[in-house]
Amino acid sequence: MFKYNVLEESDKGRVFALIIRCKRIVLFIILGALFAGLAFIIHWQQVAVYTASLATRPFNLGLVGEVNSIEPAKLDNHPERLLASTIYEGLLCFDEQKGEIKPGLARKWKYSSDGKSLVLYLRGDVKFHNGKKLKAADVKASWEKNLGSIADWSNVSLFLPIAGCAERLQGKNKDIYGIKVLNEHTLKITLLQPNRVFIYTLNHPVFWVFDSEDKNDPRAGTGPFIFRENKENKKFFLIKNEKYYRGNPRLAAINIQVFPDEQQAMNDYQAGKLDYLDTVPLEEIKKIRNASEYKGLYIEKPILETYSLVFNLNKKPFAGNYHLRRALNYAIDRKKINDEVFGGSSLAAKGAIPTGIPGYSEEMQGYSYKPEKAKELLEEAGYPDGRGLSPLLLTYNSGGAHQMVAEAVAAQLAQLGITVQTQALEWNYYRKQMASMNMSFFRLGWKADYPHTDSFLYSLYHSSQTGNSNFSGYNNPQVNKVLELSRAETDEKERNTLLHRAEQIVVDDAPCLWLFQKKAAKMLGKDVDSLTIDAMEMIDWYQVELFKPEVN
């Protein structure tokens, strides 16, 4: 039998009043939350408006190209990397002025005496954008997630020096056993071979850190700016991280506009809509460089990016014929092509290593335009005046100025009696052809993965990287040995000596026709201060500011 409790009328009244009171409290809480959210939106909408107040308005950044991801492991181009660098950062940074590594999220580091392990000590005052404190376990989790998410397979090689990475990729282990969390703020990296250059690789985005447990997209980083909005990968809005461990960023917010067309972006810059334009149209460079109204606003700086034509050393006529490869290097007037195609905005390349990088040697003679020398070598190669040499097929990826460069090279080689046919391929297909080494003579743009000579020599010319980043199939046991010794060397001066020796051998063997080193060409707005481009074409966003309005 059920027993019912019957309330008196007075009790019912009190219960009813209590229910009404509770409902009112809940309603007030909901309205309070709505008003708070609305106030936040209105505040940042006001910040986002381009006003005369330089202390509060956002910095307007113009990028040219495509942004499909800002996830560190999936960054595929410079615009994506520059945008992501506002949100994410790594354990160590590159000090361009001193040419050495400096602290980032890690305050210090120490190699073992044999160079096969590295201990990193994290700062204790770093928080992710969601308020969570950074710990060593977060670094390990970030790196393991990045390894499994890398979009460009060539970037996987950056992880392979770490013990356990190969096993993780093969599905043999769930974690990377070469990454050990010693305590909340200490991490130990075990390497397969002595590698004193490894700390330089930690600059690369695949080693940037985020909160892997964060459910938001994108995940919370530790950088100077916090992601707030993405409109169809065309417009992004970021606000400053007021709890940034280095201090309060100078900019209140950043508006980012991604343009599909260089000229459209330039038009917006000239209309005063941009504080920084990351790409300047080639046809505008000469005019801008000499225009008085752009004095102090145009930035031109050599960066660690090279433009070369690669010889496939496993295919005729380049296999086993270094005389032919050297002849082609001496046959090209790089300055003429640079002036006519790039408006003088590149540097002629002498050899494998660009300027502005630790380990670069001013003593490298390399190649320059010597047509008579080219003729002599061509005859030694067995093709006097080009006779007997089948037409060369020069392949390049379509877009940009690559067609003009290919046609200019073909015209100059024709003066030696060498016939060159040109072929353009769509980028994704072109990349597959490079990786499978199907092309015999083709264009390669190589941007340093990390700010060290090793990024050019080991990546492009060590035989272990064949098919990964060594697209020429170059295999010289002597070069392999010298590069391995350089990685193990503890003395920086001796390491550079070894790298110079390796470069000289590579240049003599001529697995490439080295053409140019790229220069960055950027535009600043008149209100911008403390914005500098480093040799990796990156910006320290914490330092950037807009001139403060004058107070009368």
Total helical segments: 15
Characterize the biggest β-sheet. Answer: 9 strands, mixed
- Summing up helix and strand content along with how strands pair, one would put the structural category as alpha+beta
Return the CATH class of the largest domain. Alpha Beta
List low-pLDDT spans: 1-12, 15-20, 34-52
Arithmetic mean pLDDT: 90
Q: What is the CATH T-level topology of the largest domain?
A: Dipeptide-binding Protein, domain 3
Q: Can you identify the CATH superfamily of the largest domain?
A: Dipeptide-binding Protein, Domain 3
Give the CATH architecture of the largest domain. Answer: Roll
Radius of gyration: 28 Å
Principal-axes geometry comes out as: globular
> How much helical structure, as a percent, in the residues?
25-40%
How much beta, percentage-wise?
15-25%
Q: Could you give the count of β-strands?
A: 19
- Total tally of structural domains: 3
Distance between the termini: 87 Å
